[in-house]
Amino acid sequence: MRVRQLTAAAAALLLAAGLGGCSDDPGPARTPAAVPAPAEPTATTGDVGPVDRAAVRDGGTLRWALDRVPATLNVYQGAATADSALLAHALYPSLFRPDEHGRLAPDPDYLEGAESTPPGQSPQVVTYRLNPRAVWSDGTPVSAADLDAQRTALSGLDPAYRGGRAAGYDAVESVAPGADPHEVRVTFRRPYAEWRSLFGPLYPAAETATPADFDRALTGGDRPSAGPYTLSRYDAERGTVTVVRNPLWWGEPAKADRIDFLASPPEQRLDALDQDRLDVAPLTAAVDRAVPAPAADASTAPASAPASASPSVAPPPEAAPESAALALRRAESLPGVTVHRAAAASLTQLTLNAERAPLTDPLVRRALTRAVDRQRIAAAALTPLGLPAAPLGSHLLAGDQEGYRDNSGAVDQADPGLLLDEAGWMRPTGGGVRSRGGKPLSLSLLLPAGSATAKRTADALTAGLGDAGIAVRQVPVPAESFVGEHLAAGDYDLALFSRPVGASPASEQRPAYAKPRPDPDGVPDPGGNFGRGGTEEIDRLFDRAAAEPDPAARLDLLQEADVRIWQLGHSVPLYQRPELVGVRTGVVGAGAYGFGWPRFQDVGWGG
Description:
17 helices; alpha+beta; single chain; 6-stranded mixed β-sheet; 4-stranded mixed β-sheet; disordered N terminus
């Protein structure tokens, strides 16, 4: 089977913090008689606190932890990582910014306003009014040329551009100047309701105008940027990226003189905070992947042995929930450091492989979906980290996102045991593992190796499915092979991972649930749909939602799509991935951002 290649950025998001991460006939639709109204967003995403710029002093340096200096700052390239995106927010424009609930609003530093033609008018044209003071660091104004070059690079029409294909750009027909140099008219070839998610981040035309420009790594040097900060140093060998105040910045001035982004592996971050070598440090992986301290032994390598001597061939360490608990307690006890907690904009789910028996049977999938105790799993995963045990009920929206609704009631409400009986998987008298034709109902569970959160989740899931007579065999897999060798290749029955969620679910989530299509050899290509199940109806609902200009009607279509995904038995949403960040006392504007990202000009030291 041909497997579509995933970019490194997608894999990094999929497996972030260790939880990165059917038949076509789902049976008769069983929509619940009473569908609850969308819930108000809960206040679980984002733990930063309000910023009073008057209370932040001018000057000073912040030290901010990265996993490593990224190979590129262009988030649309295959080598991009989450650190690429963090740095891009300090250096490049985004025309719209999300709030703590994922709602997009114009960023006045870059955009004075934007308006789409009335619904039903064809073609759809969005008119952007750029901030006339917005300029790149070489003095060139931000203009229609930048938007047009990025549209060309990301539309997928020219295979010479080797970056990822960002959602929505293929819907754009043209980008042209408007009535004056600060007006931009974007014409769409088909209606696209989630247009606010485009052009964020936006790169200068000099970096995207040709395939050669776009495909080269975007790192240091004199590359133009247009944020509150500009690059001063980009040194991958020394593990340092330094940004300083942009002298041409037109908005509210950055509070800190500079920010040093320092490569600091997660396993070293608690020591770095304790030794006052970092001020802001993501700690999710540092806690989640903590391992027991090695016992003193005469056979161990001397301290001077090179770090690269053997780890590349060593198996990943076993997940150690006890070590994770100790690491969290240490983080919480560090003097002068506060641990911020939030639910990340990432949905952890259990995916069912509909191409592997016995999960090819829709009845078995629906029974398994009913047997998963999401409350028990959320408590096991999140309570030890000090977060609310909030299970998810939507495949498409986070619990703190506007319009969230728990659609789990759409699944067959029959006892899972009765459904399995109906499918022929009978339980022995007195309990035990179900079987059919002498074959036990035993399934493999793919999970990221070395993650304490994944291990707690898997243990709770294994116990719950065991109560229903389903045996589960846990298969921990290293992050580097999790996607390509197992998930994308279909080498699993059940898989535990996370998917990022954003402000444009119709476009962003569609690939995860799109019906696999035949490749040139006639073999179904799952693309990003690792569950390998889908229907034409679900595809149409996503397409209609992406084109629906009315927000309420668009949300209704997404809810209907989510109901059908539940009924298909594609996957089970479990909880939002946890996010932990250590911040030194006195630092203002930093923390766990959830859906948002830092407003870097506000981050600094309290007065």
